[in-house]
Amino acid sequence: MTLAILTIIDVMASAGLRKTNKNHLDTFNKVMNDTLDADILIMGNSRGGCSYNPYYFDSILSQNTWNISVSGQPFGVSYLRYSLYMHNNIPPKLILLNIDYAEMGMYLNGYEREQYFPYIKDKRLYKTLKDNEFSWLDFHFPLYRYRGNYKYVGIGLSEFFGIYHIKSKQYKGYFNKNSSWDGAGLKKQIACGRKIICRMDDEAYYLMNVFMETAKDNGTKVVMVYAPVYHELKENLESKNDTLMKRYEELSCKFDVPILDYTSLPMNYDTTCFNNANHVNTKGATMFSIRLAQDIDSLGILK
């Protein structure tokens, strides 16, 4: 009887979470369930999510733009979300792939793992979740995966019964970080002699090749974009960053994909444009998005 009750609660909570617009669940729910049919698709990590505001790409380029970036996760997870997106949507005309020192990795970490809870039975996710911290009990025992995150059971039930619907704070996948920063945390790290770690995974590099080839076959153009970072962060990347950038350049040459680097803009020296050293705030995102959209227009990439 207890197991049956837990199963019923699990089913209702998960169904409710698939309808919520709460933060990171909002975009993933849209990718899993909606037909977005973006002309321009933005992919990346949290820097992708907070740097590219679709409003300006829609306005300047007269296209339908969606940002499907995945916070806290590297390319392997971005590619999974892209693959899920392609189940319900036609190929986009253009993909803006955010590249940086943290992107060339493969696997899920525990960050915001609750977005996968309502889709635990989805066969398209099984292998990825199985390989990344989701146990047999998570898959087969009701509510077990919610341990430590039981508030999401409450949110799901509230959505399921129509008690309260959480409205989206995002705009087409873009989430703003509307706060200021004084640079103190980065200066302390630099003073301690710590370098910013680069991520460079051979499996992720191979998958990027697969991604570029697939996009080409679909008639989708790809542009790799290095979004703004505060200048002192870039200056303190560990030495293998040069090798990492050469890998991006190899992809660029192999697939005739341009790299647009925005790490030397004047705004990269202005702390008022940043929420922290590697995330722009609303002001920075507006400046960058307008500049990038104008550059895409002037380069004729969509023509």
Strand order of the largest sheet: 2-1-3-4-5
Give the topology string: H per helix, E per strand: HHEHHEHEHHHHHEHHEEEH
Radius of gyration, in Å, reads 20 Å
Secondary-structure content class? alpha/beta
Q: Compute the number of strand runs.
A: 7
Q: How many strands, what sense, and barrel or not for the largest sheet? A: 5 strands, parallel
Our estimate of the beta-strand percent is 5-15%
As residue ranges, the low-confidence spans are none
How would you state the average pLDDT, rounded?
A: 92
* Apparent shape: globular
Q: Into which percent range does the helicity of residues fall? A: 40-55%
Cα-to-Cα separation, first versus last residue:
62 Å
Describe this structure in words.
- This protein is an alpha/beta fold and 303 residues long.
- It is built from 13 helices and seven strands.
- A hairpin with a 2-residue loop joins strand 6 and strand 7.
- Helix 1 crosses helix 8 and helix 2 packs across helix 5.
- The relative contact order is 0.17.
- The model has no long low-confidence stretch (mean pLDDT 92).
Question: Main traits of this protein?
Answer:
303 residues, alpha/beta, five-stranded parallel beta sheet, 7 strands, 9% strand
